[in-house]
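Justification of resources, computational component.

The compute hours requested in this renewal are based largely on the per-chain cost of generating structure records like the one below. Each record pairs the submitted sequence with a full structure-token output. That output is archived, and it is also reused by downstream analysis tasks.
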Amino acid sequence: MAEPAYTVVKRTPTVTEYLHLRAAAGLSPFSEEAASKGLAGTVFAIVLEKEDRVVGMGRLIGDGGCFFQIVDIAVNPSDQGQGLGKTIMQQLMAFVTDHLPATAYVSLIADVPANRLYEKFGFVETAPRSLGMARRAG
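The structure output for this chain reads:
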């Protein structure tokens, strides 16, 4: 019997799906309250479904005109190694190309070795001209 196919769905993950996938993929945790507020600010998102479960996701957030960031690229570990991260990026970049102003600045923070995937979509390191910086609110 053939393995069930993955389906790309253009929607924001639910809070439960979001928190589960972030944890499964080893991304930093957030509270339900923070996730709910954050997901509401999604410009565009996709989820990858296999049968009745969400196995991957990716989001684009931003101010609607000038600045955007690709975030939450996550694939369930048991589904990794099948090009799903590439599928997620293809969907996000199609939206970027088709819907964002040509002058929009689109950025992301790349974990190594995922930076190699993002390079295939035209992303380049900004150093030494600029460096990504981050901090937690608390």
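The chain has one domain: 6-119. The longest strand covers residues 53-62.
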